[in-house]
Amino acid sequence: MINKIMTADEAVAGVKDGMTIMVGGFLGTGSPEAIMDALVRKGVKHLTVIGNDGGLAPGQPAGEFGGKTARGIGKLLENHMVDHLIASHIGVNPMINEQVAEGTLRYTLVPQGTLAEKIRAAAYGLGGVLTPTGVATPMETELDELGRKKQVMEIEGKKYLFEMPLHADYAFIRASVADKFGNYYCKKTTKNFNYVMAGAAKHTVIAPEKIVEINEIDPDYFAVAGVLVDAIVEGEERWQI
User: Fold this and answer.
1) 158-163 and 184-185 as β-strands: parallel, antiparallel, unpaired?
2) What is the separation of C-alpha 237 from the centre of its chain, rounded to a whole number of angstroms?
3) What's the pLDDT tens digit per position in 73-90?
4) Which among 33, 40, 91, 94 is least surrounded, fewest beta carbons within 10 Å?
């Protein structure tokens, strides 16, 4: 069996300036912090980042840890590593609007459900998804986050927007428990985007809080198959938010 376990620095060694990455999490909850720290150490720039939001800035509430450091995508923003953020909302992290005002960052907002479905379409090899969200709004004529034209389709008398898949070079995911093949599950609210992103990128990397032997626990507990996982990062701290 191929050994997928590696350090965070080894897992991000292939990330280059200008790449597109996906990062799981919801305002820092369920973000792969060990991988974010490794990306900061690597110092890559001009990234396009796909995620639910922009994470948290230093000093923002973060449970018992008091928000002393940035969380999730916020670590990349803090170090000015992101050129384009594709997310569902950006109002929580003040660094985003500050960098937009400086002209160093742009963002594209995508409705949360649409964002998840576009990622899922990429993971499952679908040509796109149909959604009523955005019909009869400026979204009908706006280009999507990658500059692609949208289509309005009518099916059985109802209009839908055709949204195209959203792929990335790397998907960085936090897991609660994984085995050494990469089968994994996420506890409680850490599920968020950490399931749907698996397989939506050329390389899927998970950072589990705990790694177990194959067959050490009942396989039925796992929500995502390890066949979608390319690398498993050791050293992820326990759920911090």
Assistant:
1) unpaired
2) 18
3) 999 999 999 999 999 999
4) 91
